[in-house]
Design goal:
With 415 residues, the chain is α/β, with parallel strands linked by helices. The protein has an 8-stranded mixed sheet with strand order 4-5-3-6-2-7-8-11, sandwiched between helices. The chain has a 4-stranded antiparallel sheet with strand order 1-15-14-13. It is globular. Helix content is 28%, strand content 22%. Mean pLDDT is 84; it is low at 6-12 and 14-21. It folds into 2 domains: 2-20 and 282-414, NE0471 N-terminal domain-like, CATH 3.30.2020.30; 28-277, Rossmann fold. Helix 1 crosses helix 10 (260-277) and helix 4 (120-132) crosses helix 5. The longest helix has 18 residues, at 260-277. The chain is built from 12 helices and 18 strands. InterPro entries: GBBH-like_N, GBBH-like_N_sf, Mrp-like_CS, Mrp/NBP35_ATP-bd, NUBPL-like, P-loop_NTPase, YlxH/NBP35.
Length: 415
Protein backbone atom coordinates (compact mmCIF):
# COMPACT_ATOMS: atom_id res chain seq x y z
CA UNK A 1 0.00 0.00 0.00
CA UNK A 2 1.11 3.52 -0.70
CA UNK A 3 0.20 6.89 0.75
CA UNK A 4 -0.08 9.62 -1.87
CA UNK A 5 -1.64 13.02 -2.32
CA UNK A 6 -4.06 13.89 -5.09
CA UNK A 7 -1.50 15.83 -7.12
CA UNK A 8 0.59 12.76 -7.95
CA UNK A 9 0.00 11.27 -11.37
CA UNK A 10 -1.38 7.79 -11.93
CA UNK A 11 -2.64 5.71 -14.84
CA UNK A 12 -5.90 4.10 -13.77
CA UNK A 13 -7.84 1.52 -15.75
CA UNK A 14 -10.77 3.92 -16.01
CA UNK A 15 -10.65 7.69 -16.04
CA UNK A 16 -11.74 9.42 -12.82
CA UNK A 17 -15.10 11.11 -12.97
CA UNK A 18 -16.62 14.06 -11.16
CA UNK A 19 -19.76 16.18 -11.47
CA UNK A 20 -22.06 13.65 -9.79
CA UNK A 21 -25.81 13.70 -9.24
CA UNK A 22 -26.78 14.54 -5.65
CA UNK A 23 -29.99 12.46 -5.62
CA UNK A 24 -29.95 9.99 -2.72
CA UNK A 25 -32.46 7.72 -4.47
CA UNK A 26 -33.94 8.18 -7.94
CA UNK A 27 -35.94 11.40 -7.76
CA UNK A 28 -35.14 12.09 -4.08
CA UNK A 29 -32.62 14.81 -3.40
CA UNK A 30 -32.19 14.45 0.38
CA UNK A 31 -33.18 11.80 2.93
CA UNK A 32 -33.24 13.28 6.44
CA UNK A 33 -33.74 11.23 9.61
CA UNK A 34 -35.28 12.83 12.71
CA UNK A 35 -34.25 10.97 15.85
CA UNK A 36 -34.17 11.18 19.63
CA UNK A 37 -32.49 9.25 22.40
CA UNK A 38 -35.75 8.76 24.32
CA UNK A 39 -39.48 8.97 23.82
CA UNK A 40 -41.71 11.82 24.93
CA UNK A 41 -39.63 14.68 23.52
CA UNK A 42 -42.05 15.55 20.70
CA UNK A 43 -39.95 14.06 17.90
CA UNK A 44 -42.91 13.10 15.69
CA UNK A 45 -44.47 16.53 16.17
CA UNK A 46 -41.18 18.09 15.12
CA UNK A 47 -40.94 15.75 12.10
CA UNK A 48 -44.40 16.65 10.81
CA UNK A 49 -44.13 20.39 11.34
CA UNK A 50 -40.57 20.52 10.00
CA UNK A 51 -41.78 18.74 6.85
CA UNK A 52 -44.54 21.31 6.47
CA UNK A 53 -42.12 24.19 7.09
CA UNK A 54 -39.82 22.86 4.36
CA UNK A 55 -42.83 22.65 2.06
CA UNK A 56 -43.67 26.30 2.79
CA UNK A 57 -40.18 27.15 1.54
CA UNK A 58 -41.28 25.81 -1.84
CA UNK A 59 -39.95 22.27 -1.54
CA UNK A 60 -41.54 18.93 -2.43
CA UNK A 61 -41.59 16.85 0.75
CA UNK A 62 -42.47 13.30 1.79
CA UNK A 63 -42.51 11.74 5.23
CA UNK A 64 -41.97 8.13 6.33
CA UNK A 65 -43.31 7.07 9.71
CA UNK A 66 -40.29 4.88 10.50
CA UNK A 67 -41.62 3.97 13.95
CA UNK A 68 -42.98 0.71 12.58
CA UNK A 69 -44.20 -0.61 15.93
CA UNK A 70 -45.66 2.66 17.23
CA UNK A 71 -46.85 4.74 14.26
CA UNK A 72 -48.31 8.16 15.03
CA UNK A 73 -47.96 10.22 11.86
CA UNK A 74 -51.38 9.39 10.30
CA UNK A 75 -53.18 10.71 13.37
CA UNK A 76 -51.14 13.89 13.46
CA UNK A 77 -51.89 14.58 9.79
CA UNK A 78 -55.54 13.50 9.85
CA UNK A 79 -54.96 10.60 7.43
CA UNK A 80 -57.69 7.91 7.52
CA UNK A 81 -56.32 4.47 8.37
CA UNK A 82 -59.36 2.47 7.25
CA UNK A 83 -58.17 1.97 3.66
CA UNK A 84 -54.97 0.26 2.61
CA UNK A 85 -52.77 2.21 0.18
CA UNK A 86 -53.12 1.43 -3.52
CA UNK A 87 -50.20 0.04 -5.51
CA UNK A 88 -48.86 0.65 -9.00
CA UNK A 89 -48.82 -2.11 -11.66
CA UNK A 90 -45.14 -2.56 -10.74
CA UNK A 91 -46.10 -3.27 -7.13
CA UNK A 92 -44.96 0.02 -5.60
CA UNK A 93 -47.05 1.57 -2.85
CA UNK A 94 -48.76 4.86 -3.67
CA UNK A 95 -48.32 7.20 -0.69
CA UNK A 96 -51.18 9.06 0.93
CA UNK A 97 -51.22 12.84 0.45
CA UNK A 98 -52.27 15.27 3.14
CA UNK A 99 -51.56 18.98 3.54
CA UNK A 100 -49.37 18.68 0.45
CA UNK A 101 -47.14 16.00 2.00
CA UNK A 102 -46.69 12.47 0.66
CA UNK A 103 -46.89 10.01 3.56
CA UNK A 104 -46.43 6.31 4.32
CA UNK A 105 -46.89 4.66 7.70
CA UNK A 106 -47.47 1.25 9.22
CA UNK A 107 -50.62 2.80 10.66
CA UNK A 108 -52.02 2.88 7.12
CA UNK A 109 -51.61 -0.91 6.90
CA UNK A 110 -52.77 -1.96 10.36
CA UNK A 111 -55.41 0.61 11.32
CA UNK A 112 -55.79 2.39 14.65
CA UNK A 113 -56.45 -0.57 16.93
CA UNK A 114 -54.33 -3.38 15.46
CA UNK A 115 -50.80 -3.69 16.88
CA UNK A 116 -47.88 -4.42 14.59
CA UNK A 117 -46.32 -7.47 16.25
CA UNK A 118 -43.07 -8.00 14.37
CA UNK A 119 -39.59 -9.37 14.99
CA UNK A 120 -36.51 -7.32 14.18
CA UNK A 121 -35.86 -8.59 10.62
CA UNK A 122 -39.45 -7.85 9.60
CA UNK A 123 -39.21 -4.33 11.00
CA UNK A 124 -36.20 -3.75 8.75
CA UNK A 125 -38.06 -5.22 5.79
CA UNK A 126 -41.01 -2.85 6.21
CA UNK A 127 -38.69 0.09 6.71
CA UNK A 128 -36.87 -0.55 3.44
CA UNK A 129 -40.19 -1.05 1.67
CA UNK A 130 -41.45 2.31 2.98
CA UNK A 131 -38.43 4.07 1.45
CA UNK A 132 -37.57 2.37 -1.83
CA UNK A 133 -40.82 0.45 -2.39
CA UNK A 134 -42.96 3.58 -2.67
CA UNK A 135 -43.75 5.67 -5.75
CA UNK A 136 -42.52 8.95 -4.30
CA UNK A 137 -42.02 10.77 -7.58
CA UNK A 138 -39.70 13.78 -7.37
CA UNK A 139 -38.96 15.01 -3.85
CA UNK A 140 -36.56 17.58 -2.47
CA UNK A 141 -36.75 16.08 1.03
CA UNK A 142 -37.85 12.73 2.43
CA UNK A 143 -38.21 12.98 6.22
CA UNK A 144 -37.84 9.77 8.23
CA UNK A 145 -39.52 9.97 11.66
CA UNK A 146 -37.51 7.41 13.66
CA UNK A 147 -38.53 5.54 16.79
CA UNK A 148 -36.67 6.66 19.92
CA UNK A 149 -33.41 5.03 20.90
CA UNK A 150 -30.45 3.46 19.11
CA UNK A 151 -31.75 0.07 18.00
CA UNK A 152 -32.37 -1.98 14.87
CA UNK A 153 -34.24 0.71 12.93
CA UNK A 154 -31.49 3.28 13.35
CA UNK A 155 -28.76 0.81 12.38
CA UNK A 156 -30.74 -0.50 9.40
CA UNK A 157 -31.14 3.05 8.11
CA UNK A 158 -27.50 3.93 8.64
CA UNK A 159 -26.31 0.78 6.86
CA UNK A 160 -28.77 0.62 4.00
CA UNK A 161 -30.04 4.13 3.28
CA UNK A 162 -28.04 7.01 1.77
CA UNK A 163 -28.94 9.50 4.49
CA UNK A 164 -28.09 13.16 3.98
CA UNK A 165 -28.00 13.46 7.75
CA UNK A 166 -29.96 13.36 10.99
CA UNK A 167 -31.71 15.95 13.15
CA UNK A 168 -31.66 15.16 16.89
CA UNK A 169 -34.62 16.30 19.03
CA UNK A 170 -34.28 16.78 22.78
CA UNK A 171 -35.87 18.64 25.66
CA UNK A 172 -33.86 20.89 27.99
CA UNK A 173 -33.78 18.70 31.10
CA UNK A 174 -30.52 16.94 31.97
CA UNK A 175 -31.75 13.34 31.59
CA UNK A 176 -33.09 14.00 28.09
CA UNK A 177 -29.87 15.72 27.04
CA UNK A 178 -27.73 12.83 28.28
CA UNK A 179 -29.76 10.30 26.31
CA UNK A 180 -29.85 12.55 23.24
CA UNK A 181 -26.05 12.71 23.41
CA UNK A 182 -25.89 8.90 23.18
CA UNK A 183 -28.14 8.89 20.13
CA UNK A 184 -26.04 11.57 18.50
CA UNK A 185 -22.84 9.62 19.15
CA UNK A 186 -24.38 6.49 17.61
CA UNK A 187 -25.01 8.30 14.33
CA UNK A 188 -21.51 9.74 14.41
CA UNK A 189 -20.04 6.23 14.73
CA UNK A 190 -21.68 5.19 11.48
CA UNK A 191 -20.71 8.51 9.86
CA UNK A 192 -24.18 9.93 9.43
CA UNK A 193 -23.92 13.71 9.29
CA UNK A 194 -25.42 15.47 12.34
CA UNK A 195 -27.38 18.25 10.66
CA UNK A 196 -28.34 19.85 13.93
CA UNK A 197 -30.01 19.75 17.30
CA UNK A 198 -33.56 20.95 18.04
CA UNK A 199 -34.56 21.77 21.62
CA UNK A 200 -38.28 21.23 22.13
CA UNK A 201 -40.58 22.40 24.95
CA UNK A 202 -38.22 25.15 26.12
CA UNK A 203 -40.49 27.88 27.48
CA UNK A 204 -44.17 27.97 28.39
CA UNK A 205 -45.95 31.31 28.01
CA UNK A 206 -49.08 31.65 30.12
CA UNK A 207 -51.97 32.58 27.80
CA UNK A 208 -53.61 34.61 30.58
CA UNK A 209 -50.81 36.66 32.14
CA UNK A 210 -48.08 36.32 29.52
CA UNK A 211 -45.48 35.14 32.04
CA UNK A 212 -42.74 32.81 30.71
CA UNK A 213 -41.86 29.66 32.65
CA UNK A 214 -38.98 27.29 31.83
CA UNK A 215 -40.70 24.08 32.92
CA UNK A 216 -37.92 21.80 31.63
CA UNK A 217 -35.01 24.21 32.32
CA UNK A 218 -33.46 26.40 29.64
CA UNK A 219 -30.61 26.38 27.13
CA UNK A 220 -29.38 22.80 27.57
CA UNK A 221 -29.61 22.09 23.85
CA UNK A 222 -27.50 25.09 22.93
CA UNK A 223 -24.88 24.13 25.50
CA UNK A 224 -24.75 20.55 24.23
CA UNK A 225 -24.41 21.70 20.62
CA UNK A 226 -21.42 23.84 21.63
CA UNK A 227 -19.81 21.01 23.59
CA UNK A 228 -20.21 18.52 20.74
CA UNK A 229 -19.55 21.03 17.95
CA UNK A 230 -22.82 20.35 16.13
CA UNK A 231 -25.23 22.98 14.75
CA UNK A 232 -28.06 24.25 16.94
CA UNK A 233 -31.10 24.63 14.69
CA UNK A 234 -33.48 26.26 17.15
CA UNK A 235 -35.60 26.04 20.30
CA UNK A 236 -39.35 25.47 20.24
CA UNK A 237 -41.74 26.74 22.95
CA UNK A 238 -44.05 24.54 24.98
CA UNK A 239 -47.25 25.52 23.16
CA UNK A 240 -50.67 24.05 23.98
CA UNK A 241 -51.83 24.85 20.44
CA UNK A 242 -49.16 22.50 19.05
CA UNK A 243 -50.65 19.63 21.06
CA UNK A 244 -54.24 20.49 20.18
CA UNK A 245 -53.57 20.91 16.47
CA UNK A 246 -51.69 17.62 16.31
CA UNK A 247 -54.55 15.77 18.02
CA UNK A 248 -56.99 17.31 15.51
CA UNK A 249 -54.92 16.21 12.50
CA UNK A 250 -54.05 19.78 11.51
CA UNK A 251 -50.41 20.48 12.52
CA UNK A 252 -49.74 24.01 13.69
CA UNK A 253 -47.60 24.97 10.68
CA UNK A 254 -50.54 24.10 8.42
CA UNK A 255 -53.34 25.41 10.63
CA UNK A 256 -51.71 28.48 12.23
CA UNK A 257 -48.84 29.49 9.93
CA UNK A 258 -48.40 32.90 11.61
CA UNK A 259 -48.16 31.56 15.17
CA UNK A 260 -44.96 31.86 17.24
CA UNK A 261 -44.31 28.11 16.96
CA UNK A 262 -44.79 28.15 13.18
CA UNK A 263 -42.30 30.99 12.84
CA UNK A 264 -39.75 29.02 14.86
CA UNK A 265 -40.30 25.99 12.62
CA UNK A 266 -39.71 28.24 9.60
CA UNK A 267 -36.37 29.37 11.01
CA UNK A 268 -35.41 25.76 11.85
CA UNK A 269 -36.25 24.68 8.29
CA UNK A 270 -34.15 27.51 6.87
CA UNK A 271 -31.19 26.58 9.11
CA UNK A 272 -31.54 22.93 8.09
CA UNK A 273 -31.44 23.80 4.39
CA UNK A 274 -28.26 25.80 4.99
CA UNK A 275 -26.66 22.81 6.71
CA UNK A 276 -27.59 20.55 3.80
CA UNK A 277 -26.05 22.95 1.30
CA UNK A 278 -22.84 22.89 3.33
CA UNK A 279 -22.63 19.10 3.61
CA UNK A 280 -23.32 17.56 0.21
CA UNK A 281 -22.28 13.91 0.12
CA UNK A 282 -20.30 13.32 -3.06
CA UNK A 283 -20.39 9.54 -3.35
CA UNK A 284 -23.67 7.93 -4.34
CA UNK A 285 -24.54 4.34 -3.30
CA UNK A 286 -22.81 1.85 -5.57
CA UNK A 287 -22.47 -1.83 -6.46
CA UNK A 288 -19.10 -2.09 -8.19
CA UNK A 289 -17.96 -5.11 -10.21
CA UNK A 290 -14.17 -5.09 -9.90
CA UNK A 291 -13.01 -6.90 -13.05
CA UNK A 292 -15.25 -5.05 -15.50
CA UNK A 293 -15.31 -1.79 -13.51
CA UNK A 294 -19.11 -1.66 -14.02
CA UNK A 295 -20.84 0.50 -11.43
CA UNK A 296 -17.59 2.23 -10.40
CA UNK A 297 -18.05 5.08 -7.92
CA UNK A 298 -17.21 8.65 -8.80
CA UNK A 299 -13.84 10.30 -8.30
CA UNK A 300 -14.36 13.98 -7.46
CA UNK A 301 -10.99 15.68 -7.10
CA UNK A 302 -12.68 19.06 -7.30
CA UNK A 303 -14.44 18.33 -3.98
CA UNK A 304 -11.14 17.97 -2.09
CA UNK A 305 -10.19 20.75 0.34
CA UNK A 306 -7.43 21.00 2.97
CA UNK A 307 -9.97 21.41 5.80
CA UNK A 308 -12.02 18.44 4.60
CA UNK A 309 -12.74 15.29 6.57
CA UNK A 310 -9.97 12.71 6.86
CA UNK A 311 -12.51 9.87 6.94
CA UNK A 312 -14.92 10.89 4.17
CA UNK A 313 -14.08 9.45 0.74
CA UNK A 314 -14.82 11.54 -2.34
CA UNK A 315 -13.60 8.91 -4.79
CA UNK A 316 -12.82 5.23 -5.17
CA UNK A 317 -10.91 3.96 -8.19
CA UNK A 318 -9.59 0.72 -9.70
CA UNK A 319 -6.12 2.04 -10.40
CA UNK A 320 -5.02 -1.33 -11.79
CA UNK A 321 -6.20 -4.95 -11.27
CA UNK A 322 -4.31 -5.15 -7.94
CA UNK A 323 -4.79 -1.63 -6.55
CA UNK A 324 -7.76 0.17 -5.00
CA UNK A 325 -7.28 3.95 -4.70
CA UNK A 326 -9.29 5.98 -2.19
CA UNK A 327 -9.40 9.78 -2.35
CA UNK A 328 -10.33 11.50 0.92
CA UNK A 329 -12.04 14.84 1.33
CA UNK A 330 -8.86 16.39 2.77
CA UNK A 331 -7.09 15.66 -0.55
CA UNK A 332 -5.07 12.67 0.71
CA UNK A 333 -5.02 9.49 -1.38
CA UNK A 334 -4.37 5.93 -0.27
CA UNK A 335 -3.47 3.15 -2.72
CA UNK A 336 -4.30 -0.28 -1.29
CA UNK A 337 -3.01 -3.61 -2.58
CA UNK A 338 -6.18 -5.69 -2.64
CA UNK A 339 -4.51 -8.71 -1.00
CA UNK A 340 -3.49 -6.48 1.91
CA UNK A 341 -7.13 -5.50 2.25
CA UNK A 342 -8.18 -9.14 2.30
CA UNK A 343 -5.63 -9.84 5.06
CA UNK A 344 -6.90 -6.84 7.03
CA UNK A 345 -10.48 -8.13 7.29
CA UNK A 346 -11.87 -7.67 10.81
CA UNK A 347 -14.95 -9.89 10.55
CA UNK A 348 -15.67 -12.57 13.18
CA UNK A 349 -14.23 -15.26 10.89
CA UNK A 350 -10.89 -13.45 10.62
CA UNK A 351 -10.52 -11.87 14.08
CA UNK A 352 -11.70 -13.22 17.44
CA UNK A 353 -14.32 -10.73 18.60
CA UNK A 354 -13.57 -10.67 22.34
CA UNK A 355 -9.77 -10.87 22.37
CA UNK A 356 -8.93 -9.31 19.00
CA UNK A 357 -6.69 -12.31 18.21
CA UNK A 358 -6.18 -12.85 14.49
CA UNK A 359 -7.74 -16.08 13.24
CA UNK A 360 -6.79 -15.65 9.59
CA UNK A 361 -3.55 -17.34 8.51
CA UNK A 362 -2.00 -15.23 5.71
CA UNK A 363 -0.58 -18.41 4.16
CA UNK A 364 -4.12 -19.55 3.36
CA UNK A 365 -4.84 -16.47 1.23
CA UNK A 366 -3.77 -16.95 -2.35
CA UNK A 367 -1.53 -14.33 -3.96
CA UNK A 368 -4.01 -13.51 -6.73
CA UNK A 369 -7.02 -12.85 -4.48
CA UNK A 370 -9.12 -9.93 -5.76
CA UNK A 371 -12.56 -8.47 -5.09
CA UNK A 372 -15.43 -9.69 -7.20
CA UNK A 373 -17.69 -6.90 -6.03
CA UNK A 374 -17.47 -3.86 -3.72
CA UNK A 375 -20.71 -2.46 -2.29
CA UNK A 376 -21.28 0.76 -0.33
CA UNK A 377 -22.78 0.38 3.16
CA UNK A 378 -24.62 3.52 4.16
CA UNK A 379 -22.35 6.53 4.49
CA UNK A 380 -19.69 4.82 6.55
CA UNK A 381 -18.30 1.64 5.00
CA UNK A 382 -17.79 -0.70 2.05
CA UNK A 383 -18.28 -4.46 1.85
CA UNK A 384 -16.09 -6.77 -0.25
CA UNK A 385 -17.14 -9.98 -1.97
CA UNK A 386 -13.81 -11.75 -2.62
CA UNK A 387 -13.03 -14.34 -5.28
CA UNK A 388 -11.89 -16.79 -2.58
CA UNK A 389 -15.51 -16.99 -1.35
CA UNK A 390 -15.12 -14.66 1.65
CA UNK A 391 -17.84 -11.98 1.87
CA UNK A 392 -18.52 -11.17 5.53
CA UNK A 393 -16.09 -8.30 6.05
CA UNK A 394 -17.26 -4.68 6.33
CA UNK A 395 -14.52 -2.04 6.08
CA UNK A 396 -15.49 1.26 7.68
CA UNK A 397 -13.99 4.41 6.23
CA UNK A 398 -12.39 5.09 9.60
CA UNK A 399 -10.64 1.72 9.44
CA UNK A 400 -9.56 2.23 5.83
CA UNK A 401 -7.95 5.57 6.67
CA UNK A 402 -6.22 3.99 9.68
CA UNK A 403 -5.07 1.10 7.51
CA UNK A 404 -3.52 3.54 5.04
CA UNK A 405 -1.72 5.39 7.82
CA UNK A 406 -0.47 2.12 9.31
CA UNK A 407 0.80 0.99 5.92
CA UNK A 408 2.77 4.21 5.56
CA UNK A 409 4.35 3.49 8.94
CA UNK A 410 5.14 -0.10 7.91
CA UNK A 411 2.75 -1.64 10.43
CA UNK A 412 -0.04 -3.20 8.36
CA UNK A 413 -0.33 -6.31 10.50
CA UNK A 414 -1.43 -4.34 13.56
CA UNK A 415 -4.29 -2.39 11.97
Amino acid sequence: MQNTDRNQSHAPDASPRSAVSTDKLPGIRHIIAVGSGKGGVGKSTVSVNLALALQRLGSRVGIVDADILGPSIPGMLGIPTCERPATTPEGKMIPAEQHGLKVVSMGMLTGDDEPAVLRGPMVGKYLKMFVDGVQWGSLDYLILDLPPGTGDVQLTLAQSMPLSGVVIVTTPQTVSLKIARRGLRMFEKVQVKILGLVENMRTFTCPHCGENTDIFRHGGGEQMSEELNVPFLGALPLDVDVVTSGDEGLPIVAGQPTSVSSKVYASIATALVEQLHASITVLKPFVWTWDSNDGAPDWAEDAARPAGSQNTPIGLLRRDPRTLSVLWEDGHRDDFDVRDLRLACHCALCVEEMSGRKLLDPKTIRPDVTPQQIVSIGNYAVKFDWNDGHNSGIYSFNNLRALGASAAAGDVENV
